[in-house]
Description:
By secondary structure, the chain is an alpha/beta fold. The protein has 11 helices and 10 strands.
Amino acid sequence: MDAPTMLQLTCHGDAGHVVEVALDRPSAMNAISTAFAEEITATTARLAADPSVRAVVITSTHERAFCVGADLKERNGFTDAQMMDHRLVSKLAYRGVLDLPVPAVAAVEGFALGGGMEIALSCDLIVAGEGATVALPEVGVGVIPGGGGTQLLTRRVGWSRAASMIFTARRLTAAEGGALGVLDEVVPAGTARDRALEIAAQIAANSPVAVRNAKKAMRLGMGADLAAGLEIEDGCWRATAFSGDRKEGVAAFAEKRTPEWPGH
């Protein structure tokens, strides 16, 4: 894959099943401009369509920031019409991360603010270094989280904790974020990327068909009642149980060897 201007892509592992997407706009601490949002959308679409990808890790090349959110300098000059055009572009970027069919792990070091935090929330797991600072501060500049933050954070930590964080616009340390469940793991500063890649490698070692269908069942079932969720799970189970991966998994277990997943 050719790396876009503001993203660096690296494949990890012998077969390259783990793809690291590094946010790389250091001059603006990875603030999300219109062009940056378009690149995120295009890149996630390519990853989603690539059957060889089993896990994605989102990192940053900037040691002081994962992403500080929207590019407010760019927005400051927008007309109302331009603001609406940008809204459509940015929505696609966040949905591109959220809709990845494979697990995504965010590795946060430094600041993850506003839209940057929403990129992390759009991932399935968030690993943060001890020096990280996270926040959804949008109400402090006259808007609300618009990259999924109001929905994803509430689903992750519950109403009251999400309300406290969003309504006050307060910044959380990594320790506070970990205690509230905003972050899944807090690790020594500077090691979030290594830990995220380790988790992704563990994911990639499993059946790609099973992992994709497990994520599909979980995501679709979140918005359904229990009965409907169980039906969603059953459909995903059927799609997995009669796959080549299931046959290989059972055979490898019986033969006491490492599976060689066909991935179909």
